[in-house]
Amino acid sequence: MSETRFSSLQMTALVILRALIGWHFLYEGVAKLTRGNWSAAGFLLESKWIFAPVFKWMAQNESILRVVDAMNIWGLILIGLALILGCLTRTAASAGMLLLTLYYLSTPPLVGLYYAIPSEGHYLIVNKNLVEIGALFVIAVTRSGQFAGIDRILGRLTGRSRR
Question: What is the mean pLDDT of residues 91-103?
Fold first, then answer.
């Protein structure tokens, strides 16, 4: 099986995309952390569609909510840092896709579903979470961390570098 090679410009574009998404995750996590009293409860209670009972149960169970809040904050921060630094890029991109999928499933932009939480626009099926999931998929299946990032250094140290 032949390995697809990207031009330097294409890889630079992927690295920039990775860093921008990383910044978005990092900023969201740090903003929640520094707020001090942030909680996912309001978001989870707004949940509609088939997984709403699970998300609402999380919000209504205090001990579960504390875990969800901590995982959300630190997940955003760690995923963001890893993407920016190009460290464990595929793992970070996959974790980001999972987190965004949970956000999407909690409040999907489907016909007939209305939410009290602020929305940045009017969506039908495709919203910013789904777009970012797609972008993270591109990051996960390419080797942008090997092109520019800690993954490149780790790959050389372990002899697993493929460029």
Answer: 97
Q: How many whole angstroms separate alpha carbon 163 and alpha carbon 143?
A: 9
Domain ranges of the chain: 8-158
pTM of the model: 0.89
